[in-house]
Design a protein that fits this description.
The chain has 181 residues and is α+β, with helices and mostly antiparallel strands. Helices cover 14% and strands 33% of the residues. The relative contact order is 0.22. The N terminus is likely disordered.
Length: 181
Amino acid sequence: MLFKRLSLAALAAVSSQLALASPASGVLQFEGAVKGTTCSISVGGVEAPNPAAVTLASVNLEELKQAGTDGMVGAHFDIDLKNCKGAATKASATFLGANGTTVTNRRVDNMATSDPAKNVQLTLYMENDEGGTWSTPASDRYWVGIEKGKLRYRANYYANRPSDITAGNFEAALQFTVLYQ
């Protein structure tokens, strides 16, 4: 009999604890809009969504080792904005790895399969609309006036371990999306 009383007391205690831990619920309401393309975009005359090639300059291994994590310019390129319509007045872009390319700490990893350069990455910089300084797109988003007609970028080689880099090929692919304000 004592066992039944203790069991009932334990059951009552557990039941009261379960009542205190009851789940809560809420409602999420989503609002948005689906809009058409604001501007036609191209890189080097190649209209998106077709892939455009950005040719990096060849750099000297010893000079890159000396430049180290400051890097060396590999290429400048523009994302051209044409035939813009709608209320947007500014544009920026986001970048993600594509075709197997990975991005680590805002740097693009080398995906070359034939004689790859070791310990070399790529860093993108965007020319901002505030005096021509450059910043990494992943760290600071700068919005550029659409009337300028382009988003300007610089791709730098980056030696993530300068003393351990080796000569070789560099290949990477990035998907970009132009955003508007």
